[in-house]
């Protein structure tokens, strides 16, 4: 076994990876005895016994039930993830709201919080406020945070702390990461991630993408963003900007985009494009958020043929663009999140038809197109999954109360 840089793995690295293997087995396949865990993981029984004992001492595991392997002898004790103790914190900051989710190692949600953002200028302070509430709630419940990830609607540098660009929020730099670090008393432990990337992980583990290894998650708002999962892992690209599809020239050539150019995909399939087609006011009016706007449009489409036709036209541009993107990425499943979710079959059916037409070769499979299942919680939930991922990958230590050291972004698997 070797480390990420290609040299021989140190004993502590081997121990972390073996511990992660046991944790993943319990998360994915359920409770097991030590003998069953050894069979599942391929680890030696003595190794499994040592790992299980250490995890029981820290409160990560608990006894589940007694099972017999035969007629004679003492029944074996099964263990399971305790559902308390270590959790990952997912935070989302957006123009209109902030949200927080805590997820344990088994993937169960242990805490949810949301707050309305009074103004764009107060978004960061509202995020800090909700983080403090989470820290207090965890302490009162006897749980402790492995780490935290903040989902941001913008471009994030490869260091996973620096916000490079957010078109609608004043968040440039590492200020968000530093502020959340300070809330929990950490240093350099908070990760910042693109909201579409987080949404992709949430749908992969908890929503419409479950069972898939290769997934494209497309989130709809004023802008269009994508999160890409390849072989079960988030793909970020060389500089961390993978998935920035909104300004690819995949839309109607005559449509002017907010960036000043013509033909951008989001100019044909973003929220403003929908409002222009169906004559519905958008965010900032009484309808509020993009999701509520889409709900109103879907309700109107029940009795208005022109609204249905407008959604269908948007769906066709959506499917055409997905055909091009899918030809490059070859996802098995495409999940539509954000404002696409309330539109459901109204946008899904024309998008499926257009996607099938664009696929270049009969030999190339058409990815399955699904509507997201998680709604506005997707980004925060996926951010929480990112916060536990390093422990489940064996790249960080499961150490309650201790400092967690991560490998640099350049060597992280």
List keywords for this structure.
413 residues, alpha/beta, Arc Repressor Mutant, subunit A, Nucleotidyltransferase, domain 5, 3 domains, five-stranded mixed sheet, 13 helices, 14 strands, 40% helix, 20% strand
Order of H and E elements: HHHEEEEEHEEEHEHEEEHHHHEHHEH
Number of strands: 14
Whole-number average pLDDT? 88
Instruction: Determine the strand fraction and express it as a percent band.
Output: 15-25%
CATH topology name of the largest domain? Nucleotidyltransferase, domain 5
Q: Any idea what the CATH superfamily of the largest domain is called?
A: ATPase, nucleotide binding domain
CATH class of the largest domain: Alpha Beta
Q: Strand order within the widest sheet? A: 5-4-3-6-9
Number of helices: 13
Helix and strand composition category: alpha/beta
Helix content: 25-40%
Q: Which residue ranges are poorly predicted, with pLDDT under 50 across at least 5 consecutive positions?
A: 284-288, 402-413
The global form is globular
For the record, give the distance between the C-alpha atoms at the N and C termini, rounded to a whole number: 14 Å
């Amino acid at each position: 076994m070797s480390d990420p840089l290609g040299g021989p793995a140190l004993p502590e690295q081997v121990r972390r990876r073996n511990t992660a293997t046991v944790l993943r087995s319990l998360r994915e396949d359920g409770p097991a005895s030590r003998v069953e865990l050894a069979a599942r993981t391929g680890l030696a029984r003595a190794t499994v016994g040592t790992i299980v004992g250490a995890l029981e001492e820290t409160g990560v595991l608990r006894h589940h039930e007694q099972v017999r392997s035969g007629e004679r002898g003492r029944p074996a004790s099964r263990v399971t993830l305790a559902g308390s103790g270590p959790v990952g914190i997912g935070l989302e900051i957006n123009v209109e709201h902030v949200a927080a989710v805590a997820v344990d190692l088994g993937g169960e949600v242990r805490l949810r919080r949301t707050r309305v953002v009074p103004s764009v200028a107060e978004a960061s302070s509202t995020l800090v406020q909700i983080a403090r509430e989470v820290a207090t709630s965890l302490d009162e419940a006897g749980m402790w945070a492995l780490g935290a990830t903040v989902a941001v609607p913008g471009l994030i540098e490869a260091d996973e702390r620096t916000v490079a660009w957010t078109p609608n929020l004043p968040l440039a730099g590492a200020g968000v990461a530093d502020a959340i670090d300070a809330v929990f008393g950490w240093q350099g432990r908070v990760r910042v991630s693109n909201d579409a990337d987080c949404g992709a992980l949430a749908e992969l583990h908890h929503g419409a993408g479950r069972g898939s290894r290769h997934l494209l998650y497309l989130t709809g708002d004023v802008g269009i963003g994508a999160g890409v999962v390849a072989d079960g892992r988030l793909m970020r690209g060389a500089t961390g900007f993978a998935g920035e599809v909104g300004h690819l020239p995949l839309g109607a050539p005559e449509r002017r985009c907010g960036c000043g150019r013509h033909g951008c995909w989001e100019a044909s399939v973003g929220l403003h494009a929908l409002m222009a087609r169906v004559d519905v006011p958008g965010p900032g009016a009484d309808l509020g958020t993009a999701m509520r706007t889409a709900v109103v449009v879907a309700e109107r489409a029940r009795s208005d043929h022109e609204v249905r036709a407008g959604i269908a036209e948007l769906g066709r541009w959506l499917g055409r663009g997905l055909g091009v993107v899918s030809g490059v990425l070859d996802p098995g499943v495409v999940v539509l999140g954000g404002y696409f979710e309330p539109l459901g079959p109204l946008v899904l059916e024309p998008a499926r038809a257009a996607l099938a037409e664009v696929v270049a070769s009969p030999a190339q499979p058409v990815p399955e197109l699904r509507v997201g299942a998680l709604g506005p919680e997707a980004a925060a939930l996926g951010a929480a999954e990112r916060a536990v991922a390093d422990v489940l990958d064996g790249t960080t230590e499961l150490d309650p109360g201790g400092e967690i050291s991560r490998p640099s972004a350049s060597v992280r698997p």
